[in-house]
Amino acid sequence: MNKLVLFDIDKTLIDRSMCHQVAFSYAFKEIYGVTVDISIINYAGMTDPQIAVEVLERVGLDENLIKSKLDKCMDAVVDYFKKNAEREDIPALDGAKELLDALENKVIIGLITGNLEPIALEKMRKAGLRRYFKVGGFGSDNINRTELVKTAIKRAKDSHGFDGSEVFVFGDTPRDIKAGFEAGAKSIGVATGRYSKEELKNSGADFVFDNLKDKEKIVEIILENS
Length: 226
Ligand SMILES: [Mg+2]
Description:
This protein is an alpha/beta fold. It has helices spanning about 20-30, 50-60, 65-70, 70-85, 95-105, 115-125, 145-160, 175-180, 195-200, 215-225; strands at about 5, 110, 135, 165-170, 185-190, 205-210. The protein folds into two domains: about 5-15 and about 90-225, 3-Layer(aba) Sandwich (Rossmann fold), CATH 3.40.50.1000; about 20-85, Orthogonal Bundle (DNA polymerase, domain 1), CATH 1.10.150.240. The protein is built from ten helices and six strands, in the order E-H-H-H-H-H-E-H-E-H-E-H-E-H-E-H. Strand 4 (about 165-170), helix 8 and strand 5 form a beta-alpha-beta unit. The chain is globular and about 55 Å long. The N and C termini lie close together (about 10 Å).
């Protein structure tokens, strides 16, 4: 196939998961002995390991100490999420399922998210969207979001016959747009998070939408020149 379409998760396909946020607080206490919530920073569009490093640096922990226990900390985030996510409802945002239905079998669909892979896949399962995604780049692959896009592209080429022609990245933050640009993808900004269409456009988005409900227009952009 000649098109790869990658979707961010939080605030693009679903609303936020409180359980995921609380999982960080649990892991920080368990692994580093500090009490802090990730809401002290603007983490929108950051990868999970990046969020942990920035929050822990902010409360004064030594960089080497943070890095030495980072893998353990990420494991603790996943453990907490797995044990507690069943109590949480994670519905898909309006239009997400319809758009994925319209793209299915016409393009390769994947995920591009800062979420650790087990958390990303569980969120998609709970939202009823898991079956659409053939590949992904996840926070567990790399701390740097641009590298995640490159990883997802490579996986699509290696395992799903993607010819490398055209990649689209959906996201709700300037960090998603920047990562897409740096990896050579076209970006589609959706204003379902904390950023407006104008802010997403100004950060370099090739296209912007209020949400995913404008299915016809979005599909037309992606399938153009197929
Ligand atoms: Mg997001």
